[in-house]
Specification:
Length: 108
């Protein structure tokens, strides 16, 4: 009976999460990605503890896969956030010429 209840909670959480993320305006995607990167970093620490805690062979194997997944998520999140922020660097402010924008843009 408990497994069925846990399955219901998992399905409901997935559905609610999908609906919430779908309704986020594009202007908030970058701060939201930064927040999820922080959460993924916490997950990475927990996965390292599970992988290296000598709790058993199954815990070590699952912890290793959790470390790989969390590290991939953190890395990809930072790359996506950097790419999104780069899209805003080249935008002109109202009344600003292209020459003025080029002078204020930091050198790479």
């Amino acid at each position: 009976m408990i497994q069925i209840f846990q399955l219901y909670v998992f399905i409901l959480a997935g559905f609610v999460g999908f609906i919430i993320i779908q309704r986020v305006p594009p202007l908030l995607h970058t701060p939201l990605m930064s927040a999820t990167n922080a959460i993924s970093g916490i997950s990475l620490v927990g996965a390292i503890v599970a992988a290296g805690g000598q709790y058993g062979r199954v815990s070590t194997i699952l912890g290793f896969f959790a470390v790989v997944c969390a590290a991939t998520n953190v890395t990809a999140g930072f790359l996506i956030t950097d790419r999104m922020l780069a899209m805003f660097k080249g935008q002109l402010k109202p009344g600003q010429s292209k020459d003025a924008a080029a002078k204020t843009e930091p050198a790479k």
